[in-house]
RNA sequence: GGAGGGGUGCCCGAGUGGUUAAAGGGGACGGGCUGUAAACCCGUUGGCUUAGCCUACGUUGGUUCGAAUCCAACCCCCUCCA
């Protein structure tokens, strides 16, 4: 590829965001010659996005940072259909009320990454239910359905995999790619959007939109996908002890989010810094060269930078501070999850395992008992050896709380009130 | 609508009347080694008031001293036919 003229594509390429592009030269020319508008779509299948969505959010962020206009498309309409990509099973059909609630809950995540408004490069948010809900079946089929070849649709991974594995694929889901293609056309017409971005699993859907716009409007659109990010060990990103790595703070606290990045594997640090932090590339190059235990410094910088992008600088610093106190000084930082217990209850000698469960460190009393048996449970940093161990006011430490630990990394505080 | 195959724990998957809370693998968690890393070794992996009890093999009933395993009906998935 010849040297890139546009800052936008240059930044994305240098940082490792680009997997495939329908026409890199053409897109580069458009982005170099003026302001372009690009979008990424997000379905409302849960009440929070997770780290898997982060890559595309960062692409929108860099788009805006390099002088272009991002559109966040909320899939209020497409969520009613359900994307079969990457799924063995039909998605559970969500009610409109659930979809609306999810959408409202997801929206907040974008506000830290993008600047919304009405200026030329301000981000806007749209909902595809606005045009999909009112489509009339027969006119839609005649105007747009005739441009889709079933032969070709069957060859797309999202469909092919289901068929090969002999799993159910409903006609409802089969329509998803058509609707996504139509979204792109609609955004091109309404907002002069010329580029759709997304994960590599969206390539087929994106290309469909590009093709549709060329056939119907003789409009030239572009598609750009980012790679599927896996950890060096081969595992997919985004799992912690508590489950998915959610972006909403009420699903996963800023402290736990910080911890997620802090525990990045050595081999991934450089790559993740480029993708998920907004540090200058020469700074990242310096951090990447750190070896052995020194690379932990890079991990802390990654964690703080990534957390700051999502939750703000103050929350990131607080998480870093708590981590320092907890791991480097053996104290308990204030950001640790905390539960409260009445003094009267403590005086009755509650079982330790029950408290581990109540604090959220374990999912059940049985799991807490097993943790104790396995030697992974500690109270005020002292290992718990007796499964029947109960707590008393003697366990309150100098600061007025009881510190519970499950393993070396997960801690919780019991504050006595 | 017809014929055949199938639905097992977080996932995959063995199990065709009792010793089955259910082999094996993956994942996850804990311990060891480390650097809050990876790799490797060990352990754990339904719930509870834990020497016991309860709930569980698509659903509901039935046979039996005893069922994930046998029978019936129903629901769902796949393949082929119409």
Describe the fold and architecture.
The mean pLDDT is 90. With 417 residues, the protein is an alpha/beta fold. The protein contains 19 helices and 13 strands. It is globular. It starts with 6 loop residues before the first helix and ends with a strand. The protein binds one RNA strand of 82 nucleotides through helix 15, helix 16 and helix 19.
Indicate the topology.
Elements: H1 7-15, E1 20-21, H2 24-33, E2 37-43, H3 51-65, E3 69-75, H4 96-113, E4 124-127, H5 129-132, H6 137-143, H7 150-153, H8 157-164, H9 171-174, H10 176-191, E5 195-199, H11 203-217, E6 222-226, E7 239-240, E8 243-244, H12 254-262, H13 269-276, H14 281-288, H15 295-311, H16 313-328, E9 338-341, H17 343-347, H18 352-358, H19 365-373, E10 377-379, E11 382-383, E12 401-406, E13 410-416
Parallel strand pairs: 2-3, 2-5, 3-4, 5-6, 9-13
Antiparallel strand pairs: 1-6, 7-8, 10-11, 10-12, 12-13
The chain binds one RNA strand of 82 nucleotides through helix 15, helix 16 and helix 19.
- Total DSSP helices: 19
For the biggest β-sheet, the strand order reads 1-6-5-2-3-4
Helix % is 40-55%
**Beta-sheet strand percentage?**
5-15%
Taking pLDDT < 50 over at least 5 consecutive residues as the criterion, the unreliable ranges are: none
Kindly report how far apart the N and C termini lie: 65 Å
Features:
globular; five-stranded mixed beta sheet; alpha/beta; single chain
Task: Give a quick precis of the structure.
With 417 residues, the protein is α/β, with parallel strands linked by helices. It has helices spanning 7-15, 24-33, 51-65, 96-113, 129-132, 137-143, 150-153, 157-164, 171-174, 176-191, 203-217, 254-262, 269-276, 281-288, 295-311, 313-328, 343-347, 352-358, 365-373; strands at 20-21, 37-43, 69-75, 124-127, 195-199, 222-226, 239-240, 243-244, 338-341, 377-379, 382-383, 401-406, 410-416. The chain binds one RNA strand of 82 nucleotides through residues 165-168, 232-233, 235, 239, 241, 259, 262-269, 292-296, 299, 323, 326-328, 351, 362, 364-367, 369-371, 373-377, 387, 406-409.
